[in-house]
Design goal:
By secondary structure, the chain is of the alpha+beta class. The chain has three domains: 33-47 and 267-334, conserved putative lor/sdh protein from methanococcus maripaludis s2 fold (Beta Barrel), CATH 2.40.420; 51-59 and 185-264, Efflux pump adaptor protein, beta barrel domain (Elongation Factor Tu (Ef-tu), domain 3), CATH 2.40.30.170; 68-167, no CATH class. Helices cover 21% and strands 39% of the residues. It has three helices and 24 strands. It has helices at residues 2-31, 97-118, 127-144; strands at 33-34, 42-44, 49-59, 62-66, 74-77, 84-85, 90-95, 145-149, 154-158, 169-174, 178-185, 197-202, 207-216, 225-226, 236-237, 239-246, 257-264, 269-272, 277-279, 282-289, 292-303, 307-312, 319-321, 333-334. The protein has a six-stranded antiparallel β-barrel. The chain has a five-stranded antiparallel beta sheet with strand order 18-22-21-20-19, with no helix packed on it. β19 and β20 form a beta hairpin. α2 (97-118) runs antiparallel to α3. The longest helix has 30 residues, at 2-31. It is elongated and about 155 Å long. It starts with a helix and ends with a strand.
């Protein structure tokens, strides 16, 4: 009986020790845990501002060769549709039939004069005149044929339609290398820079690539676009051509349309001043990472009672504690 009482007492003591230990562990855990009250309001660093533009994929160089009647009605194209050519290759030969007829007439005239010279009673009468006609013949021969050469390396595209009349297209020469052409409005012109990186969405296949702004023209397009939001006024906005180089040419064809996303770098973020704590000469905020508080040191440029301008230490989409309290410390877990 005595042994039984001792066992019961021992069991009660063990249970009591367990309860006390559990309460101590729970209390210690709570010390390292931040209560989810109004002081735990989060503040998210806003995303960088973006400009969205529409663009089209085009050859880096392109030239259309139109029929030039001043060079002659008859022509010959020396390349096939889709054929690759090198710079300086002969593309088109024109033959001027009017000059051809003049050459034929001049040759007959010279031949007749030579026959008459053989019958001359006084030698040398027509000799000087024949020499002058031969010089004129030589000049006409130089003008009889005209040539068009490839100004750059590329690929030839020939229309299936028979060219007729003046300014009819004979062929196009395009490089096999592409870039993107677009326009930026006068409102956004000062926000974009050459060598700036951009994100590109290819609308035909939803592929995403990157590019770099190669050139921004300081000459606006000839026609300004009217502002839709002010139909009652004559207010217009000018657009400036820009050229974008592609980092990758995969999945891209000439003529594809794209959407261009240009981030506007902003190294300055306004955050609530209540989110900032001082540690000596340093300032920090509490980042929320994996549901825990992480001390993040920052640099502040301007500060007032409500907001402070942070110039380094934070980036877009970072989450921080909006108001730091004295109970908070690094490593604490957020409920």
């Amino acid at each position: 009986m005595k042994k039984r009482k001792i066992a019961i007492v021992g069991l009660i003591i063990l249970i009591w020790i367990g309860i006390v230990g559990f309460l101590m562990i729970k209390s210690k855990g709570k010390e390292n845990q931040v209560k989810n009250d109004k002081n735990l309001e989060r503040y998210t660093i806003p995303e960088e501002k973006k400009i969205f533009l529409n663009g089209v994929v085009q050859p880096t160089k392109s030239k259309v060769f139109y029929k030039d009647l001043t060079k002659g009605e008859n022509y010959k194209i020396h390349k096939e549709n889709g054929e690759n050519v090198s710079k300086g290759n002969l593309l088109i030969t024109y033959k001027n039939e009017e000059i051809t007829n003049q050459i034929s007439d001049l040759k007959n005239q010279i031949d007749n004069m030579k026959k008459g010279k053989e019958k001359e009673l006084v030698p040398g009468t027509n000799e000087e005149e024949i020499k002058n006609l031969q010089k004129e013949l030589s000049k006409l021969k130089d003008k009889q044929y005209s040539y068009e050469y490839a100004p750059f390396t590329g690929r030839v595209y020939i229309s299936n339609k028979e060219a007729s009349g003046e300014n009819q297209e004979l062929l196009k020469l395009r490089t096999t290398d592409f870039n993107i052409t677009s326009q930026v409005s006068e409102r956004e012109l000062e926000k974009v820079k050459e060598d700036q990186k951009v994100d590109i969405l290819i609308l035909a296949n939803d592929k995403k690539v990157q590019g770099t702004i190669e050139d921004i023209s300081d000459e606006p397009e000839a026609q300004a676009v009217a502002l839709d939001q002010q139909p009652s006024t004559n207010t217009s906005v000018s657009n400036y051509p820009i050229t974008i180089n592609l980092d990758s040419k995969a999945n891209i064809e000439n003529g594809y349309h794209v959407q261009i996303n240009i981030k506007l770098p902003n190294n300055k973020f306004k955050i609530p001043t209540s989110a900032i704590k001082e540690d000596g000469n340093k300032k920090y905020v509490y980042l929320i990472k994996d549901n825990a508080l992480v001390k993040q040191f920052i640099q502040v440029e301007n500060k007032d009672d409500k907001f402070s301008e942070v110039i380094s230490g934070l980036k877009e989409k970072d989450e921080i504690i909006k108001t730091i309290t004295s109970e908070m410390k690094e490593g604490q877990v957020i409920e």
